[in-house]
Amino acid sequence: MGSGHFPSEHGYGQRDAYFASMQYYNASGFLLDPNEKLMSKVLGCKRNYNIEYYGSYEEEQEGHSLQYGGPGGNC
Fold first, then answer.
1. Between β-strands 31-32 and 24-25, what pairing exists: parallel, antiparallel or unpaired?
2. Neprosin PEP catalytic domain: from which residue to which, for each copy (predicted)?
3. What is the pLDDT of residue 30?
4. How many helices (H) and strands (E) does the chain have?
5. Of the residues 4, 34, 54, 68, which has the fewest C-beta atoms closer than 10 A?
6. DSSP structure string for 5-68
7. In this predicted model, what pLDDT tens digit does every residue of 32-71 receive, in sequence order?
8. Nearest-angstrom CA–CA distance, 22 and 30
9. Is the distance from CB of 7 to CB of 50 less than 8 angstroms?
């Protein structure tokens, strides 16, 4: 994933993989933004991968965004 570096090493969108402008459809078909209070971080191998959630990243006009990656390896 990404460039082999943790997301916090270079800053948002510099070298790691990321999702921007995240939204989802609810059961009624309405497009919604993620609810940060209902989110949880689940990582199986923290020494090899990480994820950073940036919330609504208004500065770059990219909406709700997250970045993920790491050096990889065996867990």
1. antiparallel
2. 1-75
3. 96
4. 0, 5
5. 4
6. S-GGGT-TTTSSEEE-S--EE-TTS-EE---GGG-----S-TTT-EEEEEEE-GGGT--EEEEE
7. 988 888 888 888 888 888 888 877 766 666 788 888 888 8
8. 14
9. yes
